[in-house]
Amino acid sequence: MDKIEALELIKETWDNNSLSLGDKISTISNAFYTVGLDMATTAAYIKATPAEFYAFLSLSELDEDIINLISKVNPPKTTWLLLASGNDDEIRKAL
Fold first, then answer.
1. Dihedral Cα 33, 38, 43, 44, nearest 10 deg
2. How would you classify residue 74: left for phi > 0, otherwise alpha for psi between -120 and 50, otherwise beta?
């Protein structure tokens, strides 16, 4: 996959409302990191702010079980960075 294909996959995934948040996290973060995209360009391409996209990518660093829990709750975007900065117990309590 090249950078253009990765950007297209990320945009398609970002805009797909039928996918779970967990599926989006997995697909987007994998494409983003695999080809080495930059934050600002990717955020602009998907029509998100760099801060919003950074918070989203931060969720991908969490344990898969926690990502699944977050996906089930589907919290608002404004909580993503806060959740990503917590430990597993804090995240469970917040959700």
1. -140
2. left
Task: Give the side-chain half-sphere CA count within 13 A for 50.
Answer: 5
Q: What is the DSSP string of 10-72?
A: HHHHHH-TTS-HHHHHHHHHHHHHHHT--HHHHHHHTT--HHHHHHHHHHTTS-HHHHHHHHH
What is the enclosing helix (H) or strand (E) of 2?
none
Question: How many other CB atoms sit within 10 Å of the CB of residue 12?
Answer: 13
Is the entire prediction scored with pTM above 0.85? yes
Angle of CA points 74, 58, 3, to nearest 5°? 105
User: Is residue 64 within 8 Å of residue 30, measured between CB atoms?
Assistant: no
Is 63 within 8 Å of 83 (Cβ atoms)? no
Tens digit of each residue's pLDDT (9 = 90 or more) over 5-29: 999 999 999 999 999 999 999 999 9
